[in-house]
Amino acid sequence: MSRTAELYARALQSIPGGVNSPVRAMKAVGLEEPLFAARGEGAYLEDVDGRRYLDWVLSWGPLIFGHADPETVEAVVSAAREGTTFGTATEREVELAEAIVEAVPSVEMVRLVSSGTEAAMTALRLARAATGREPFVRFRGNYHGHADPFLSEAGSGVRTLGIDARGEGGVVEYNDLEAVERTIEGAACVFVEPVAGNMGVVPPAEGFLEGLRRLCDASGALLVFDEVITGFRVARGGAQERYGVLPDLTVLGKIVGGGLPLAAFGGRAELMERLAPAGDVYQAGTLSGNPLATAAGLSVLRRLTPGVYEELERKGQRLDALGEHGRFERVGAMATLFVDDYPALFRYLLERGIYLAPSQNEAMFLSTAHGEAEIGRTIEAVANFPTEFEHKAARRLLDHENRC
To answer: Which end of the chain, N or C, is more open, meaning fewer C-beta atoms within 10 Å of its C-beta?
Structure first.
């Protein structure tokens, strides 16, 4: 029995479904067992059986400098020597908040939390308190974490029981301004991924974000950008910098924590000062602003210079060659290759040591650790997929006919 099979059998006895997040089970791409990671370095991941993969998932986006980035690791180790958690304020919390405010155009004040779900949930609570309204508008295929208001079949495509969906408001199609206009009256906010990243990468249509800003201003609703994926990835200041549209509130995660559990939400000072203890909207968290996570986040954010984004864009343009083999959507350092049989492509590439997201509805993530060799290898493997896949199918058919 392989180490992977052994661990999965054990996991099934103590963890529901054997994984701690559903997509990790890899059922959508036809695998019987999840991938159990052992270690990572740069653009590569190694599993518990010693198989090495060129990694385009990068923990779903946080690792903009790749796995085990030496400066980030050193920052975390150094912080851990001073203590792993204190439950009180620290200097690095202030420094990370200042770095976020400096980088993200619309953010004047920010609150640190531990997960994107927590950040989105509280941003919605704040928007409802600020406007005195309950319903809100969101988009089919966008994902804002697993808090009840965001998790309905209509909104996320996820079927689940046990949610309280009262007061949710309208769910409309992404990039459909007319649908927003029909739905926005009485809404507390419009909650949107400015670049969709959870139905595969889908860029905003021309004028879409500007239209949302206009409709929110006219209706009194707040505009909330979920930049958990896009923040510090499509530009240092996120999608709002790239597209020049400023929301009222911004949700951040992934890169902002440097690969450790940390997220944030922020916005205009008069909104953020409604939060306790300054105001009457309650939010709290024992591990918020954790010293290891703030050390990692600061290590990463301080190195995100214009040159980093120029490098990532050059690499992304090289990766655009994947568009010859399917519909390829890319915004900065996030991309998706849409093909008819994604599960077959995933398994084909995994067998050849290339790890894509185990779902067509997710993104590929570029890092500074991906070089010309890694990009070229991926393009070549994808180019060979249809031919080799067809040849294997033909051989199976011939074998079957010979047996008959």
So the answer is: C
Does the pTM surpass 0.90? The reply is: yes
Within 10 angstroms of residue 109's Cβ, the number of other Cβ atoms is: 17
Looking at the chain, how many residues does it have?
404
Q: Do the beta carbons of residue 112 and residue 97 sit within 8 Å?
A: yes
Distances (CA, A) of 105 to 22, 228, 267, 274, 386: 34, 15, 9, 20, 44
In three-state form (DSSP H/G/I as H, E/B as E, the rest C), the secondary structure along the chain is CCHHHHHHHHHHHHCHHHCCCHHHHCHHHCCCCCCCEEEEEECEEEECCCCEEEECCHHHCCCCCCECCHHHHHHHHHHHHHCCCCCCCCHHHHHHHHHHHHHCCCCCEEEEECCHHHHHHHHHHHHHHHHCCCCCEEEECCCCCCCHHHCCHHHHCCCCCCCCCCCCCCEEECCCHHHHHHHCCCCCEEEECCCECCCCCECCCCCHHHHHHHHHHHHCCEEEEEECCCECCCECCHHHHHHCCCCCEEEECHHHHCCCCCEEEEECHHHHCCECCCCCECCCCCCCCCHHHHHHHHHHHCCCCHHHHHHHHHHHHHHHHHHHHCEEEEECCEEEEECCCHHHHHHHHHHCCEECCCCCCCCEECCCCCCHHHHHHHHHHHHHHHHHHHHHHHHHHHHHHHHC
Nearest residue to 292 (alpha-carbon basis) of 90, 103, 139: 90
φ and ψ at 219, to 5 degrees? -100, -15
The angle, 0 to 180 degrees and rounded to 10, between the axes of the packed helices 342-351 and 372-403 is 110
Catalytic residue numbers read 143, 226, 254
Q: Sign of torsion, CA 281 284 96 332?
A: negative
What is the arithmetic mean of pLDDT over 139-155?
82
Residue type, 303: R
Distance (Å, whole) CA 172 – CA 190: 11
CA 170 to chain centre: 23
For 366-398, what is each residue's pLDDT tens digit? 999 999 999 999 999 999 997 655 545 444 443
- Of 234, 238, 174, the residue nearest 208 (C-alpha): 174
211/277 Cα distance (integer angstroms):
35
Give the gyration radius of the chain's Cα atoms: 22
Kindly report, residue by residue over 82-123, the tens digit of the pLDDT. 999 999 999 999 999 999 999 999 999 999 999 999 999 999
